[in-house]
Every structure is written in C-alpha cells, then in structure tokens.
Amino acid sequence: MKKWIISVAGLIVGISLLYVPDTAEAGKKRTFEEDIKQDWAQKVCSNPESKVPPELLDKFLEEQKKLIKYPKSGNIYGDWKRGEKLFSNPKKGNCYACHCGDPKELACGNLGPNLKGYGKKKKDPEYTYRKIYNSWAYVPCSVMYRAGVHGRLTPEEIADIVAYLHSPESPINK
Amino acid sequence: MVIRYALIALLTSGMLGVSFGEEIKDPAEEVKKQKKLLLEVMGVLPGDLIAEEGKEYFHKKGPNGKSCASCHGKDGKGEKMPLVGAYATMPKYYKDIDKVADLDLRIKSCMEKYLGYDPKKISGKAGRKIIVPLATYVASLSNGMKFNVKLDHPKEKEMFEKGKELWYARVGKMDFSCAMCHDKYGGYRIRLQTLAKPKESKVMRYWPAYRYSKDKMWTMEDRIRGCYKQIKVTKPPFYHWAHVALQMYMAVNSNGGVVEVPGFVR
C-alpha cells in the first residue's frame, strides 16, 4: 500500500516536473527566435565539448563573477524551511531534477552530485550562494543553470536555499 | 475509438505507477514490458492502428478530388512516385516547393498543393489529426530499409549545419542544449526520467513513435517541441525550419539504421 502511494506520488511529480508552464512571462507572447538568442557565455559554451577555449577562460570567469548580486539586506543565510520548498518546487529551484539530497525525496536525478550531508562538508556559505546564483562562475558551461543570472531565483530565495543546504536542522544534514 | 483510448490511458497509467517505485528500473526493460502487456491485452499495438488510420487517409479524396494515392499509387507503390523507401531519405530538398522538408512538412505541402486543402484549416490542431497518422503510415512504407540521408543539395548541407548548431546551442533560462541532455548526460536521470541517447540509438529509424506514457502518436516534430518546452524555450511552431534542421542532423546520425515504424517509446 505504502509503495503504491509513493508510486503515484512519484508519477505526479515525475510528470509535472517536465511539463511546467512558464508563468513568469504570462501575457507576453514570446517567440522561438527570441528565445534562442544567446548571451556571450552561452555562445562560448555551445560546442561539442561544452568547454570554454583556454584563451577565453579568464575573461569568461571574470564576466560570470561580475553578474553575481547579493540581497539588499546583505544576508546570504535565509530561512531553511522556505529554502526547502524552493529547492523542491519544479517551478522554482527544481534542484531535485539533478540532485538527490533529502533521503525522503526519491524522485531525484543524478546529473549533479548528491547533496546529502552538504552542510557537514564545511563549505563556505558564501561559496554556496555564489554557486547557486551563477554556477558558471565556478564550473564554466556546467549543465547546472544560472538561477540568479536568469532571475529564476531572487537573491533572497537563493539565501533561503543556502540555509537549507547548510543548516544542521535541515533534512539535508540529518 | 474513444473507448480504445480510454482503455489504454487507464491501463498505462496504472502500469506506469508501478515503474515509479522505490527502486529505479531499467528503462529499456520497462518499455519491453509495457509493449508486451499492451499486446496481450489489446492484441494489437496502438501505433499499428494509427498507421492503419493513415492508410485510410492516404486513399481518401481531398477537397479537389485527388488523394495521395492519385500521385503515389495504391499503397504508395505507384510506378511514377512510389513512397516505398522515401522516409529513409528524409529530410530532403524538394524542387516543387523549393524547400528542404521533413515528413510532416512534406505531407502538409502535398495536402495544400495537390489535394486542395486550405492551408489555414490544416496548419493547426485539425491538421495534426490527419498529418500524424499519414506520417506514421508513410514512414512505415520504409520499414526494413536502411536510413540513407545524403547532403547533395546546398540547401540540405545548410540545413544540416543549422541543425548541428541548434543541437549544441546553450539557450534559454535553463542554459540547456540538446547535446547536454542527450550526448553528455545521455543515460543519466533527470528526476526519474532516463535521458535518451538519440544519436547512438539512430533515433530517426523508429519515429514517428507511439508514447505509452501519453497514449499518443508523436512525430519527431512533437518530440522536439516537447523537449523545448521542458527547457522553457518557446516551442517552434509545427513545420518551422528548426524541426527540419534538427531532424537533418539526427537523420545523418541515423544513417545505416533500419527503419522500424511505428516506434514504441515511453
């Protein structure tokens, strides 16, 4: 019975994750042509190796670092409970698409490293903030999207996710 | 017809639930199992019924009294312009429309140009109801033959280059490209979905395909639109050049693969 419930829940999550309408731009009709316009970094990454040519690497990293912005309050360590919701919400972080973390969450992908116990690894929360804001400032052309750069998560929302990943109370670190 | 669809939906949703249990199952095994189950219950695969439906359309008269069979012969086996083997060479440049066309666009062009269909009436959903079965049927006429797409015409080369560019282009708010999911991370899981490796599996050889998870027949244009939707990029409209370009790229990578349509996929 329990297995069956998990199965159905998994099914719903599994389907909804991949077919989420983008509500951010509701009203305005965008076109395919507009949406496939690339920024400089996307252009640089569009090669079979998905690598930045060595001669462009310094410029690339510098530009990506420049794009990172902080919350007005200056606080990069928000509320882990809010972070938990943002992390799993397919319309927001959608982090489970690629990362496992909370062992209770079974519908998780394996493109990215498992984040279980992340907070115990003594990483600097500021690194975590910056990584989520712009993953390409650390791993150029990573498959991990640049959540802050594209405005899919606000600085405050990213701060909440930082707390979710670092807090000892968070299910990630239990 | 309606009953058939309802039955399959019920059946597959029930079975699907099982596939999302705690342990992650081998997706290839899962597809085999679903196919076997459907065959046992229905005695026939839904994709084959849709190909049959396409065959009926193929022989049905359009607004100006002609049918596909008028030009291509009964069952596409005419003397002049047979369609046996045609799909295995598509996308291709066609002089009569001065365009490189994929299966969908070629069929739509024939319907407008030679059968007298009003372009406005068939460019949307109503058109898909006829074009998808027709595409399934026409593709199945190449079953058993090897994919053999050539880049002879300059416009074909151009389409291939555009398709390759789109395949690797990191785009949109998710910074994805086709290649990230289907080359670099092919075989990995995004949530519980295992990412396909379309180049390795010579994907064009088994599309159009019946998707049991949706109980729908999809052409490759539907598949491409689905993938763009997932990565939050506005879908290219049906018959857009991006479909032709991406399929040209995938078709060249499918060369040598034996056509087996309708395919059966998740």
Q: What is the spatial order of strands in the main beta sheet of chain B?
A: 6-5-7
Percent helix range of chain A: 25-40%
Order of helices and strands of chain A: HHHHHHH
Question: Which CATH architecture of chain A would you pick?
Answer: Orthogonal Bundle
Write the layout of secondary structure elements.
The complex is a heterodimer of chains A (174) and B (266).
Chain A: H1 2-18, H2 32-35, H3 40-45, H4 57-66, H5 80-88, H6 125-133, H7 155-166
Chain B: H1 2-19, H2 27-42, H3 46-58, H4 68-72, E1 92-94, E2 99-101, H5 103-113, H6 119-122, H7 125-140, H8 154-168, H9 178-184, E3 189-190, E4 193-194, E5 209-211, E6 216-218, H10 220-230, H11 241-254, E7 263-265
Parallel strand pairs in B: 5-7
Antiparallel strand pairs in B: 1-2, 3-4, 5-6
Helix pairs in contact in B: 3-7, 5-7, 8-11
Describe the structure.
Chain A has helices at 2-18, 32-35, 40-45, 57-66, 80-88, 125-133, 155-166. Chain A is mainly alpha-helical and 174 residues long. Chain A has a single domain, classed as Cytochrome c-like domain (Cytochrome Bc1 Complex, Chain D, domain 2). The radius of gyration of chain A is 17 Å and the shape is globular. The model of chain A is unreliable at 1-23 (pLDDT under 50). With 266 residues, chain B is mainly alpha-helical. Chain B folds into 3 domains: 2-43, no CATH class; 47-140, Orthogonal Bundle (Cytochrome Bc1 Complex, Chain D, domain 2), CATH 1.10.760; 154-265, Orthogonal Bundle (Cytochrome Bc1 Complex, Chain D, domain 2), CATH 1.10.760.10. Helix content of chain B is 49%, strand content 7%. In chain B, the strands form 3 sheets. In chain B, strands 6-5-7 form a 3-stranded mixed β-sheet. In chain B, helix 3 (46-58) packs across helix 7. Classes of the chains: A mainly alpha (174), B mainly alpha (266). At the A-B interface, helix 1, helix 2 and helix 3 of A face helix 1, helix 8, helix 9, strand 3 and helix 10 of B.
